[in-house]
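Case study.
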Amino acid sequence: GAGVSQSPRYKVAKRGQDVALRCDPISGHVSLFWYQQALGQGPEFLTYFQNEAQLDKSGLPSDRFFAERPEGSVSTLKIQRTQQEDSAVYLCASSSKRQGTPNTEAFFGQGTRLTVV
Amino acid sequence: AQSVTQLDSQVPVFEEAPVELRCNYSSSVSVYLFWYVQYPNQGLQLLLKYLSGSTLVKGINGFEAEFNKSQTSFHLRKPSVHISDTAEYFCAVSAEYNFNKFYFGSGTKLNVKP
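After joint prediction, the assembly is written out as follows.
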């Protein structure tokens, strides 16, 4: 498809389990973002990639969260030793231009709903 | 840092009535402003954005918003809503130097009744 694709759409993890969430951005998009959306809240910024370089990871809540984009296209958000407070929808967005270039639009995927039990 | 306040968590309205969804922001630097819509089990879709120029911005689906710098507001309006406008609406801000790193409000659920 032409949009941002995220998988899985739903994930149930037992507390302490490691999870990996995948994001396929729109082909050719340079910028990729991860956001976390807790129930009843707006999305919160986690991290940003420009091609394969992770330029901003200031929003990652702990060292249990790790993101990578090794070839500048697909990205994976990994959460180690999941906790109940990690339950949220994880949104990925991509944009065609570099960070700091105005008048571009970020396209969001449908998200992965993570439930930690 | 930037922050966004959406005071109304839910707004019920009858079909064909006008609606205004309120958004106020806080920032020490110049910002860009956005409204996104989220339908159930869907990602966020851009409704409109203010980057510069005219303070009245028109977006998709008949929505418009007005940037008011003195009141640090960016309220979203539609003169006549449809059932299909039922969704959650998020206001977002980004710093001019850090475009696309959004700070979102907590959202307003618009419930259009027949």
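Observations recorded in class. Residues 3-113 of chain B form a domain with the Immunoglobulin-like fold (CATH 2.60.40.10). Chain B has a mean pLDDT of 93. We will return to this complex in the next lecture.
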